[in-house]
Amino acid sequence: MKVAVVGATGLVGSKMLQVLTERNFPVTELLPVASEKSIGKEIEFKGKKYAIVSMQDAIDAKPAVAIFSAGGDTSKEWAPKFAEVGTTVVDNSSAWRMDPSKKLIVPEINADSLTETDKIIANPNCSTIQMVVALNPLYKKYGIKRIVVSTYQSVSGSGKKGVDQLESERNGGKSSNPAYAHPIDRNILPQIDVFLDNGYTKEEMKMVNETKKIMRNEDIAVTATTVRVPVTGGHSESVNVEFDQDFNLEEVKELLANAPGVVLEDDIKNGIYPMPINAYEKDDVFVGRLRRDESQANTLNMWIVSDNIRKGAATNAVQIAEYLTENGLIK
Ligand code: 2RA
Quick check: is 331 in a domain? Predict the structure, then answer.
């Protein structure tokens, strides 16, 4: 299968190539696309060297699927051009996520809604993905009235810029191309992306709006505070979830332990709980610190950790492509 990876040299794009290899996705020809200045440079994929090609050359090759991680503007301009030649696009930017005509997919939750007419498919925001993967089995059992989430997000969410800034500061220097307006080393920033008129950031409203769309329920109340922390291995989230009905804590643990894509790490007597350092380079969503919210009926506290570059971006996108292939929606 001809596969294009658009943004192939970025942090997420290069992870997509790694995940395609690890999961043995049936790539017969790779079309790596990056910025104009990278055209002609070579990358290695599955032991073979591939030259970076232009966007138009990739379109002309009519790949079965094009996996994008190249920013919203690039996706808005080029994804429709791929779709016009019959390519199915899986896009990791926010460009199409809230477009009512496009599907926002987490395979464990709603891949079954996909059809061969879906030619541009949106990959949700990393912080949304890990939260809904953990909440979905509980949502199906108990229904959800309200979610309050606070995040502790890795600098890798800002791409190489974020990682470089932290590294420079830790080495006593200053990044030449900082990702943040403030120092991130020995600090935390209660701002991810720009502020909106309602006082929330774009990142926070992504979590609010994407969660409702993925879970196909606009009545779920969601509020979020998203925070950048000097960590590189993954995003962590403190989630307080009010169900429609009471729950049994042991049953909750069993539901999570048996949920697709979820690993339960909940043994406080032995100091076992999810941490980014342990989630790094894994594809699972790790859940722990489960306890009843004693201040409110039908409400549970959870701690959710996942590698934001993998399940939060690259792996989820590849899993969507796998679903499409396995169900004959792309050939
Ligand atoms: C971040 N979720 O962490 C956003 C985009 N990757 O910066």
Answer: no
Q: Residue 236 pairs with which residues in a beta bridge?
A: 152, 305
Q: pTM here?
A: 0.97
Domain count, the chain: 2
Q: Are residues 152 and 255 in the same domain?
A: yes
Answer yes or no: are the C-beta atoms of 234 and 306 closer than 8 Å.
Answer: yes
Instruction: Give residue 16's domain range.
Output: 2-124+313-326
Each residue of 314-324: b (16+ CB within 10 Å) or e?
Answer: bbbbbbbbbbb
Set 15, 235, 310, 311: catalytic member: 235
C-beta separation of 65 from 88 below 8 A: yes
Prediction ipTM score? 0.97
Q: Is residue 331 scored above 90 in pLDDT? A: no
Q: Does one domain contain both 172 and 252?
A: yes
In order of 158, 174, 247, the CA distances from 165 in angstroms are: 10, 7, 44
Residue 227 falls inside a structural domain: yes
Identify the active-site residue in 65, 104, 120, 126. Answer: 126
Q: Convert the pLDDT of each residue in 292-323 to its tens digit.
A: 999 999 999 999 999 999 999 999 999 999 99
Tell whether ligand 1 has an atom less than 6 A from the beta carbon of residue 309.
Answer: no
Residue 235 falls in the annotated catalytic set? yes
Nearest residue by C-alpha to atom 7 in ligand 1: 157
Mean pLDDT of the chain: 97
The binding site for substrate consists of: 153, 228
Task: Tell me: do 143 and 292 sit in the same domain.
Answer: yes
Query: Per residue in 120-165, pLDDT tens?
Result: 999 999 999 999 999 999 999 999 999 999 999 999 999 999 999 9
- 126 C-alpha to center of ligand 1: Å? 6
Residue 15 lies in a domain: yes
pLDDT tens digits for range 193-241: 999 999 999 999 999 999 999 999 999 999 999 999 999 999 999 999 9
Determine the Cα–Cα distance for residues 178 and 231; give it in Å rounded to an integer: 16
Our mutation pick for probing the ligand 1 site, out of 193, 229, 309, counting the most ligand atoms within 8 A of Cβ, is 193
